[in-house]
Amino acid sequence: MMDHGHFSLVDGVWLQGTNGCYVSLNPADRSPVGEVHGPDTAVAEQAVAAAVREFRKGQWARSPRTRAAALNAMADAAAAIANDLIDLLVRENGKLRAEATGEVMASISELRYYAGLSRDIFGRTFSGQAGQLSLIDKEPAGVCAVITPWNAPLTLLVRSLGPALAAGCTVIVKPHRATSVVSNLFMRAITSVPNLPTGVLQSLNDPEDWVGAWLVNHEHIRVISFTGSTATGAKIAGSAASRFKKLSLELGGKAPAVVLEDADLDRAAREIAKGITVLSGQMCVCISRVLVDRRVAEAFRDKLVGELSAVRPGPGHLPSSTMGAMFDDGAVERHMTNQQTARAHPDMEVLLAGEDRRDETGGCFVTPALFSSRTTGHPLIQNELFTPMASFETFENPEEAVALANVPDFGLAASVHSTDINRARWVASRIDSGTVWINCHNRLFVEVETGGYKSSGIGRLHGVEALLDFQETKHVYLENDYEL
Ligand code: NAD
């Protein structure tokens, strides 16, 4: 059933703009999910003006308890429609129901976490000598644009929105057009709470894909919290440079999984297969390279191929599916073309052929692929693939494993698999990556910072440090004549 009329939220009112209409599709059967209507620039200007007005008023920026109450009420409102959100997320995004459930529950939990944290923002004081006092305050940085991708539209929205609101910013949300229906349902729920002052939070649809760049260039947007590809992140950083805007960039990844000689191979094969196929290989922290000690390579390869061969792609709502749909036909075609490229290369071999399983409904399904590689210079090893496909590479010793892991210019996530915790930590500490998991992969926590080294981004989200992406530090200095 098609859901009509998804508009933009501006100053407390859901408005229909005049610029374009995008029909979002269910990747599992191409059925329409909803119509996404976009704003024109006049409507987008109204959204920015409301956010600026509320920020300047100062009530929101200076009232941590109001912010905590609003964030808690938002969590309650989202929890009240959790099942609807899960169903819609499966339909609009194509992911498994278990993955959608995890996403919605984590989003609610994250709102509560930042509700608490908004009441725990303290500055510092310093006195260099009698009569001198420095107050070091944390202030909200201003009006913030939160720009999100399609692959985890709720988690990635709340991961920025939670700390932005907790810090005292006012916010304009800009979802990806392909997942705007679920984003809007969530936004309708969380902005209906009485504790949230009108105008603190807006949402602008983007059917024609111009609103993101427009916000980035807007003079009154001071913070850009962007999650998406490294290519778009680089454009944003370029545009934002002329006004020195504050950037929070969570970008692409190319996660390696390092399997040391002494790893529990069965456990590692299970974890790594899950890490390759989670969200159908369309998650920033998905495993894209498997690096294995040569002495256990053959045994491990057989186990990993066994695990990957057992994956059953299918619609996310069916309990029999163990991997959901791909984003679109383009993703399926990329999956197949990348395998042809590997097949044609003298230093590569396809170890497990991924199939194109598009069905008569047009549902975008594939099976996972694995290829061996003896070269590191190739784009298949250097670039994000974003399908369930990984390279299989061998090393002679942990030093070489580290050197291989650090080859791409990404540094978002990695894992090390070993029964020797000291060796695993030695390797973990030498990989250039914002996160390294040991004997598992893809464990993310609301309370713990995540973010990238190198081309994977700037700043950290989740945890206490996420607040820093949305704050300025101010020094207020007092001098008095009397001795204490
Ligand atoms: P994308 O970069 O194509 O789009 C992301 C968002 O940016 C969309 O809302 C889009 O409309 C908007 N946008 C496009 N051009 C823009 C511009 N010039 N200025 C401002 N906004 C613009 O990314 P995607 O395909 O939606 O998402 C997949 C990518 O996101 C992958 O590279 C993945 O690794 C990355 N990602 C990273 C993380 C992380 O935590 N590091 C998490 C999820 C996804």
Give a short overview.
With 484 residues, this protein is an alpha/beta fold. It is built from 14 helices and 23 strands.
In the CATH hierarchy, what is the class of the largest domain?
A: Alpha Beta
Structural class: alpha/beta
Radius of gyration: 24 Å
User: Spans with pLDDT under 50 lasting ≥5 residues?
Assistant: none
Associated small molecules: nicotinamide-adenine-dinucleotide
What is the arithmetic mean of pLDDT? 96
The percent of residues in helical segments reads 25-40%
Total helical segments: 14
Number of domains: 2
The shape, in one word, is globular
Give the strand content.
15-25%
Please tell me the CATH architecture of the largest domain by its name.
Answer: 3-Layer(aba) Sandwich
Count of strand segments? 23
How far is it from the N-terminal to the C-terminal residue, by CA?
A: 72 Å
CATH topology of the largest domain: Aldehyde Dehydrogenase, Chain A, domain 1
Family: Belongs to the aldehyde dehydrogenase family.
Protein name: Aldehyde dehydrogenase family protein
Pfam families: Aldedh
Keywords: Oxidoreductase
